[in-house]
Fold this sequence. Notes:
By secondary structure, the protein is an alpha/beta fold. Helix content is 48%, strand content 16%. It contains 7 helices and 7 strands; from the N terminus they run βαβαβαβαβαβααβ. The chain has helices spanning 17-28, 40-52, 67-81, 104-132, 153-173, 197-210, 214-225, and strands at residues 8-12, 32-37, 56-61, 86-89, 135-140, 177-184, 235-238. Helix 1 crosses helix 7 (214-225) and helix 3 runs parallel beside helix 4.
Amino acid sequence: MSGIEGKVVAITGAGSGIGEATALLLAERGARVVLGARRAERLEALAARIEKAGGEAAWVRTDVTRREDLSGLVRLARERYGKLDVLVSNAGVGLISRLDDLRVEDWEEMIDVNLRGVLYGIAEALPVFREQGFGHFVNIVSTAGLRVTPLQAVYAATKNAVRTLSEGLRQEAGEGLRVTVVSPGFVRTDFADRMDSEVKVQIVEKMDSIAIPPAAVARAVAFAVEQPDGVDVGDIVVRPTAQD
């Protein structure tokens, strides 16, 4: 039996990209996955795909800016499968632009999704993990926080906030809980879809030339999840070899 088989794993942002790839891989390795994202039709299709392949999946529409939605995701895991082993906080948005553009609403959305959404997940899962005596937080951040570049100041700030939060959580967690941060670089996803057109062209061109598939990040998540009790994988960076 692998270190993944039988675990119950809730994943936010599971409708596409890294979240979808993570759900598929963990389900293939025997996890029971609980899927959350805003686009219900994608969750339904993904759950059906997993079940057709012989896996187990449940889903609920989840907007991570609403604490009650995170509560529903955690509750579904416990009601359906009796526990929650892992919460993968993957939902994120990257509305990058120059600070001079003063796209304050975009800044607020990134704070709400990228940081507040992770906090809401912690608020709902931490009491469950304490009650169980075990649990694992996996927070998806970004290499944008490791090397800050123009256009990404606010985005990087939200990701670095989660990095800091995760380290504080790890130190408070005690020996029964685990905390992992995964920092992807350029990944072939729909990350650029909502960006300003000029910026989007630049990002998409770079993605087309060097991006790695979401499955590469999913394998990093799986590596952390499959470790035996008492082994905490703290920080994983996954990026293209061609990325600066």
